[in-house]
# Entry
Amino acid sequence: MSGSTTFEFGDDPEAAGRALRDAFGCFTTGVTVVTTIADDGRPVGFTANSFASVSLDPPLALTSIDFKSNSLAHLEASKVFAVNVLHVDQQEIARKFTAKTGDRFEGVETETWGSGVPILKGCMANFELETHHAFDAGDHRVIVGRILKVRYDPHHEPLVFLRGKYRKVHTEL
# Structure
């Protein structure tokens, strides 16, 4: 086991946080942009790698958002949101939606479906959801959404996140 690290949680929260980040960084995730709308109709969005299927019947998926995020209040108030799964050529969109300032939607093509939330065009997959259930889990709010509509195009290579960096993988179709 050359190079492996074992960390036991105790009295050092800073070291625990670093150990968790490093350990979770070993799990390859897809990259998404979660979008919703503010009360004034303004589009809101953020990059997230926290996305998972929950149930096929009923169709449910989840995402989570840090309590410190400015997008949380909008996501909770709107009760509708989209999860846009990015492909490898959309790395700049992923970066754009992590920015602390500026218009994240500037230059990004969107459309709307029945709920009115922005759907990013050209993604590997798009999910339109309405909030089904939400609960607190540590420093995040977990939002479980009922899937209303989905679009997908599996003929792209996925954008993934591993060890703190965006990566690309080759998939066989």
Q: What stands out?
A: The two ends are 34 Å apart (CA to CA). The mean pLDDT is 92.
